[in-house]
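Work Package 4 report. The design task specified in the project plan requires that, given a folded chain encoded as structure tokens, an amino acid be chosen for each position. We show below one input record used in the internal validation round.
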């Protein structure tokens, strides 16, 4: 069994009979239509990626840095695509089918799915954020390989996968960090608070990394850190992104457990039969690659003037009615999920007043920011074109909030229900 790393969560698992490529996403030539860019810089080409020709593609979830339409277009549309069996709403299955792939296989959580020869895969929705993410265990050439992509640790789920592997997990690709807009794009935090919160977030994920190791007990550990960053001036905020490096995570973990890591970066491979690792590891965090960060910071987005989704001020209309219709859709999903909350959110698109929406009713109103009196609220600041795209389903909240939205919340508490419901704010 051989593992080759490309960028972010994209890697190739090869056995004698089965070759599985996970989460294909490459920004070729430093060009991105989603304002997410691979990190660090690389020189992969479309021809090199198309030449992989995998037997299967595994898509963990639909975030742009895991499911990229441009990268997926490089593969034969008859290639079987493996996705989790999300019981409530299988966004991932539908998203892959919309890209034209004809053989999308929803993998049953318990019995899994046979691949080529005697190879097998088991995929489960993540216990934490179960509508969004998934993790998988592959048995290839008799060896077991766990792909945790960027899932949070949950003990019962880890124990289930260890039971499937019959207590002999060979390789664990284990996350050491998770990307997201907090704390770097939260304006309610002072620079000092952002820095302190970023450090606390890093330690929180490092703790998860230790728990993954002790819960799964893999013979080999491949530490995985997200390799994505937002373009435009917001790239300069990544010094407070809250994402640690694989090397730092291992140093932290060694205070608690024994770990002999295998470090892999772009084009690095590990042959688990011979034990040989090829390629030069290129890790490090954002300070070590600051020249590239500054290059990405100069990029323009589709919402900037002359961008594909830029709407000139003279062409803008009042979006209140569209928001009322979208809130009605959101209320339906709020009822389905049984969400009851007294949180209020505001949408700021640069106008004199903000849109006010409360999770306690279905009304949409306008209010000046200085006049906000709601005790629990969050403000989402975004381009007009982005709000229009969210309402018309051109975009999904979870796929755009890190790249384009600025936040302010009081108190500084994460209302997960509010952010989940934002994915249902559409007509």
């Amino acid at each position: 069994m051989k593992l080759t790393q490309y960028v972010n969560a994209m890697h190739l698992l090869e056995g004698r009979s089965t070759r599985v490529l996970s989460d294909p996403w490459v920004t070729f030539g430093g060009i991105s239509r989603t304002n997410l860019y691979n990190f660090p810089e690389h020189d992969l080409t479309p021809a090199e990626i198309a030449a992989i020709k995998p037997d299967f593609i595994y898509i963990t979830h639909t975030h742009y840095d895991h499911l990229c339409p441009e990268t997926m277009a490089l593969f034969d549309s008859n290639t079987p695509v493996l996705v989790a069996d999300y019981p409530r709403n299988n966004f991932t299955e539908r998203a892959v089918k919309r890209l034209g792939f004809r053989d999308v296989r929803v993998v049953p959580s318990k019995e899994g799915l046979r691949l080529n020869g005697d190879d097998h895969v088991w995929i489960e929705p993540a216990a934490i954020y179960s509508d969004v993410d998934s993790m998988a265990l592959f048995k290839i050439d008799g060896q077991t390989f766990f792909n945790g992509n960027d899932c949070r640790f949950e003990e019962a789920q880890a124990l289930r996968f260890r039971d499937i592997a019959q207590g002999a997990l060979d390789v664990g690709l284990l996350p050491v960090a998770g990307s997201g807009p907090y704390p770097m794009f939260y304006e309610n935090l002072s620079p000092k608070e952002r820095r302190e919160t970023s450090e606390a977030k890093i330690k929180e994920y490092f703790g998860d990394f230790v728990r993954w190791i002790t819960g799964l007990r893999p013979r080999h550990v491949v530490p995985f850190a997200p390799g994505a960053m937002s373009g435009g001036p917001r790239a300069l905020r990544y010094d407070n992104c809250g994402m640690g490096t694989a090397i730092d995570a291992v140093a932290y973990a060694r205070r608690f457990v024994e770990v002999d890591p295998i470090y892999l970066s772009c084009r690095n491979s590990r042959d688990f039969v011979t034990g040989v690792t090829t390629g030069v590891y290129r890790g490090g965090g954002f300070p070590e690659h600051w020249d590239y960060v500054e290059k990405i910071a100069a990029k323009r987005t589709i919402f900037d003037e002359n961008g594909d989704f830029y709407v000139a001020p003279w062409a803008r209309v009042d979006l209140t009615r569209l928001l009322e219709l979208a809130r009605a859709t959101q209320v339906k999903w709020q009822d389905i999920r049984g969400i009851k909350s007294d949180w209020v959110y505001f949408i700021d698109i640069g106008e004199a007043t903000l849109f006010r929406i409360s999770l306690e009713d279905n009304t949409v109103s306008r209010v000046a920011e200085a006049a906000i009196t709601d005790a629990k609220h969050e403000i989402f600041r975004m381009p007009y074109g982005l709000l229009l795209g969210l309402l018309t389903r051109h975009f999904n909240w979870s796929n755009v909030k890190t790249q384009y939205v600025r936040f302010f919340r009081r108190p500084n508490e994460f209302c997960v229900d509010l952010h989940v419901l934002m994915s249902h704010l559409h007509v």
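Residues 191-216 form the longest helix (26 residues). Validation will be extended to a larger panel in the next phase.
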